[in-house]
UniProtKB/TrEMBL annotation:
Residues 1-22 form the signal peptide. The keyword Hydrolase applies. It comes from the Bacteria. Keywords: Hydrolase, Metal-binding, Metalloprotease, Protease, Signal, Zinc. Residues 264-716 form the Peptidase M3A/M3B catalytic domain. Gene3D superfamilies: Collagenase (Catalytic Domain) (3.40.390.10), Neurolysin, domain 3 (1.10.1370.10). It holds the Pfam family Peptidase_M3. The lineage of its organism: Bacteria, Pseudomonadati, Pseudomonadota, Alphaproteobacteria, Sphingomonadales. Its cofactor is Zn(2+). This is M3 family metallopeptidase.
Length: 725
């Protein structure tokens, strides 16, 4: 993360889980080749909209010389600030830092996007080589005693030097960040910390590349009979995946969630479900060259050593020092409050599923089976049909990808007055699948920003879905408008066929779009205050999932891909009636990962056997055997490709408390599109970045602290309020 511009801030409002390299760069001692001056990656972005990334000119061999040259440029900027003979002021220290490192920041963006979406072996090699260099460079800024002395002087005088509240906050956050990263350590401690940080950077890169290698696999299906139970659209997508991999006459289930989960839900072939499930859940855990368990052990130990050096009890305490929760105990308390009712609900769900399986056996339609993890989604679907007369296959024909994209833009227009105008082909993209939009203010026609989207899975693309900010909005030295993006891993259909996605996928699409909106609508002055705590950053994205099932969206966009008819109200009613169905599974799958993460990073010594720790912790907390962690440790990119979500996966639950309560604010008006509530949400939650404390911001929006009961009620769990039980 660029320490000059961003002042060590912990989480950009619209950047989610970029690779480690894209989050650590600053300066380095490596010399830059003279030829780097002509490197396109070093140059200001040109073209329309205040300049756009030069994707058509990006290639892996350009990055090392560009990074080395940018490091030298930034070193000169740091020296000028640190050795300025004038008395330290906000203008010549803090504002000067906000101007610094912009070439390096642009390179970080380009490299982060390429290593997320197009991470070929050539990019992996650059990542491996440059990660420790960049970590050392980051420390060079933190450990610059002259620079820190000037920061400290501005900090000490902040309340008596005529600074605005925003300037005072930026000064304090800059100072606190430097202290948290080791600026006050003695020389020996700094040397030791630098070594730890460089080793961590290398380990992060190693972990990500091993997992990526295990994701570049697929289960081949040779016989059409083995496709029984799968809807035609899904069969077509597996056929397209096989064709793409030159597997003529076959079908391929690729190792990404958007491909795996539908197969587990509908495939009648139990043996194949087990094969697909095990392939997906064993990523990084196969006792071979791509096994990550030793890397995890190294990372956890290094993190514990670093926390001790920095004066914190554990890595979890260090990571949470700059969050809303502050204390691991507080986050754990919330998780366990939700965990117990979720586990109880899972027992009910498993009993319902087992009854269906037993009935099948009695009718001679099945084998005498006990529900296993690869059976959960399959039998849950059968229970859903029996209890709610709802077949999720009924829904997919109404969720055509392009229509759902248009629906998300409609949401942005209705709530915030933003319009999206496609400009694909007018500016470069990094892959032919990328689509680009200019974002405007509807009322004035004013340009707001640019939005990129990359929706489809491919080789060398990391799994999952995420948002990334290419350029943050700022008034300081501006105006500068935002460039944001969304990235998904939907499976393409056969040529000419529509891409039909599930309700869950549609909610994910709206979720990631919420991150993009957070970036587009930021109106802060300083880049260093565009960042929010990790346990706040998911809140604005999670709340936007709720608009998917509003009647306005369904009537306009949830239209059957063949008939063009909108989703009938009877089907919507079934969906709503079943909205709390399987919440035990969804909650336990997520929370088991979050609890294991927190317990792992509360180990004081940091010595761990990852496989053993995962197994024993799940037993300790009473995790149901029928459900696996959403992200097992050997493939948990959130935790081990950077520090970003380490001891922080709980943040989705913390944010969901706010998201559930904020959605209740809209519902209480009787209109989910209520203009006054939308304006308050935009002005207070989305536009301010981190200009004021986020807990204060939430109270300003809602009039009080968030209510945990709103989350429990949404999931159908018992609440603390007898009236809501």
């Amino acid at each position: 993360m660029n320490k000059l511009i961003l002042a060590g801030a912990s989480a950009l409002a619209f950047v989610v889980a970029l690779p480690a390299l894209a989050q650590t760069a600053a300066t380095s001692g490596a010399a830059a080749p003279a030829v780097a001056a002509d490197n396109i990656l070093l140059k200001e972005w040109t073209g329309p909209y205040g300049g756009v990334p030069p994707w058509d000119k990006v290639s892996p061999e350009l990055f090392k010389p560009a990074y080395l040259a940018a490091i030298d440029l930034q070193r000169a900027e740091v020296k000028a600030i640190a050795e300025n003979p004038a008395a330290p002021t906000f203008a010549n220290v803090i504002e000067a830092m906000q101007r610094g490192g912009r070439a390096l920041q642009r390179i970080d963006v380009l490299f982060g996007v390429m290593t997320s979406n197009m991470n070929s072996p050539a990019y992996q090699a650059v990542d491996k080589e440059m990660s420790p260099i960049l970590a050392a460079a980051d420390d060079e800024i933190t450990f610059n005693e002259k620079l820190f002395a000037r920061i400290a002087a501005v900090y000490e005088a902040r309340e008596r030097s005529g600074l605005t509240p925003e300037q005072q906050r930026l000064t304090k956050r800059t100072y606190d960040s430097f202290v948290r990263q080791g600026a006050k350590l003695d020389a020996a401690q700094k040397t030791e910390l630098a070594k730890v940080n460089q080793e961590l950077a290398s380990a992060f890169s190693d972990f990500g590349q091993k997992v990526l290698s295990d994701e570049d696999k697929w289960t081949v299906i040779d016989n059409q009979a083995d496709l029984k139970g799968l809807p035609a659209s899904l069969v077509a997508s597996y056929k397209a995946a096989a064709d793409e991999r030159k597997l003529s006459g076959k079908w391929a289930v690729v190792n990404t969630r958007s491909s795996v989960d539908p197969f587990l839900t509908f495939a009648d072939n139990r043996a194949l479900r087990e094969t697909v499930w095990k392939s997906f859940k064993s990523r990084g855990d196969n006792a071979n060259a791509t096994d990550t368990n030793a890397v995890i052990a190294k990372i956890v130990k290094l993190r514990a050593d670093r926390a001790k050096l920095l004066g914190f009890e554990t890595h979890a305490h260090w990571r949470m020092d700059d969050t809303m929760a502050k204390d691991p105990a507080k986050a754990t308390e919330l998780m366990m409050r939700v965990w117990q009712p979720a586990v109880a609900r899972v027992r009910e769900e498993v009993a319902d599923m087992q009854a269906v399986a037993d009935a099948e056996n009695k009718r001679g339609e099945g084998t005498n089976l006990k529900i296993e993890p690869w059976d959960y989604l399959y039998y849950a679907e059968k229970v859903r049909k029996a209890k709610y007369a709802l077949d999720t296959n009924e829904m997919k024909p109404y969720f055509e990808l392009n229509n759902m994209i248009a629906a998300s833009y409609y949401m942005a227009e209705q709530l915030y007055g933003l319009t999206f105008h496609e400009i694909t082909g007018q500016v470069p993209g990094f892959h032919p699948d990328v689509r680009v939009y200019e974002v405007k203010d509807k009322a004035s026609g004013r340009h707001v920003g640019v939005f990129y989207r990359d929706d489809f899975a491919r080789q060398y693309k990391r799994s999952g879905a995420w948002a990334a900010g290419y350029r943050g909005q700022r008034k300081f030295d501006g105006p500068i408008t935002a460039i944001t993006s969304n990235n998904n891993n939907f499976v393409k259909g056969a040529p000419g066929e529509p891409v039909l996605i599930s309700l869950d996928d549609t909610e994910t699409l709206f979720h990631e779009f919420g991150h993009a909106l957070h970036g587009l609508l930021n109106t802060g002055t300083y880049p260093g205050l565009a960042f929010t705590p990790r346990d706040f950053v998911e809140f604005p994205s999670q709340v936007h999932e709720n608009w998917v099932l509003t009647r306005q969206v369904l009537d306009r966009y949830a239209k059957h891909y063949k008939t063009g008819e909108p989703m009938p109200q009877a089907l919507v009613d079934k969906v709503r009636n079943a909205s709390k169905f399987n919440q035990g599974y969804a909650t336990v799958e997520y929370l088991s990962s979050a609890i294991v993460d927190m317990k792992l990073h509360m180990l004081k010594g940091g010595v761990v056997d990852a496989d053993k720790f995962e197994r024993e912790t799940l037993v300790e907390i009473g995790a149901p055997a029928e459900i696996a962690m959403r992200h097992r440790l050997p493939q948990f990119n959130h935790l081990f490709t950077s520090d970003a979500y380490s001891a922080g996966y709980y943040s989705y639950l913390w944010s969901d408390v706010m998201a559930s309560d904020a959605w209740a604010a809209f519902e209480e008006t009787g209109n989910p599109w209520d203009p006054a509530t939308a304006k308050r949400f935009k002005d207070i939650i989305l536009a301010q970045g981190n200009v004021i404390d986020r807990a204060e911001a939430y109270r300003a929006f809602r009039g009080r602290d968030p209510d945990v009961d709103a989350l429990l009620e949404n999931r159908g769990f018992p609440t603390g309020n007898p009236a809501k039980k």
